[in-house]
Amino acid sequence: MSVMLGAFMAVLDIQITNSSLKDIQGALSATLEEGSWISTSYLVAEIIMIPLTAWLVQLLSARRLAVWVSGGFLLSSMLCSMAWSLDSMIVLRALQGFTGGALIPLAFTMTLIKLPEHHRAKGMALFAMTATFAPSIGPTLGGWLTENYGWQYIFYINIPPGLLMIAGLLYGLEKKASHWELLKSTDYAGIVTLGVGLGCLQVFLEEGHRKDWLESHLIVSLGSIALVSLITFVILQLSKPEPLINLRILGERNFGLSSISSVGMGVGLYGSIYLLPLYLAQIQGYNAQQIGEVIMWMGIPQLFLIPLVPQLMKVIPPKLLCAIGFGLFGFASFASGALNLDFAGPQLNQIQIVRALGQPMIMVTISLIATVYIQPKDAGSASSLFNILRNLGGAVGIALLSTLLDAKTKTYFDYLREAIVPSNPQVAERMALLTDKLGNEQAALARLSEITHQQASIMAYNDAFHFVGIALGISMIAVLLTKALPVGVKGGAAH
To answer: What is the reported pTM?
Structure first.
């Protein structure tokens, strides 16, 4: 329960600042582009730490590592609330991400190695809550705290559960000796190439759109370094008898196909949480709290649904249940791609509930399908790879979606503008109405251009939601291609 609480807090903190960025930027005198690093620094540090966790558990012991990173997470959370400049906030958010990054794979690994097999589905249900409920509720909680108490409270909120988590870890995890002798045989080249590769790739994906991708020398350099580093890492790992991360497990049919689905899940989960607030703010003029109230319908129902999934797994094969989950989530994404000016919170709430039905079915079952044939010695590698791929799926998805939105908006605007000519009777009628309403033809023309751009944006958002739906459809196919679970697997009990 304590490591699950830690993972929940770490994932929550990815999204919790999103609703409050304007307030934080204002307090720290930062521009919109500079403020984006408040989120980017956390994500970069987190994704570097995730794959190092399995090695650190061997080196320090699970208990020592868990308590140390939990303490670091609480300290950095407190310091973030006291940040005196943008630079200090970026550094402190990176520290928060680095310590929080260890808590996510720790929760996954503890589920695999600590729980008896007949309780594993319950453990995966708890892990699903951290992976899907936390990012869904993050913007809601962040917006509500910022509106009512101030942005500092999005960091203060970590303190009470954090203290409870440390107490639980000290009580629940047995003391084990450190193995400092492992430092002599550690794959330092693997650590450096993986850390540099993932760090550069994350910044490349997060900042690429803002800097116009290959038009920026910085983005080209980061992409090149990431490519060379990650290729070197793969070669190093495949050439070692005892690698830092055993990449060969990707060749195991269930784990490999489930990893593809995990990438799609990342695109769907983080892509939806990226697109919805942006659409509601840009097109519908919603404030942070109103956006949070819409996002909430993706999160709150999961609290009640996740505990039911292990029971459903006793009557429906996990593979089929997972495919149904991807189907529901994909259907909700395609349904979101029918936006118009009258399509706002009330209409989206119903779609959010369908999303909330699908996500728990995926997260509880996909972890079990992925790991059922994995050996206990590879549990750390499986945890690292599975969580990295979901996070990278989210980062790649958001990068593609932001680029798609811009490109499609321009394309649709040009397409619509071609029809706006004085000889078109509908245009002439609309111009006459706007001129009468606004007082002069210049203002009417500006308003018509604004309306056209808004319509182009709505069409682009529709395409973006369709893209998310396609990614989830591919994930559903990948799950259906996995092997059936061994005989005797009911609700997670493998024999």
So the answer is: 0.81
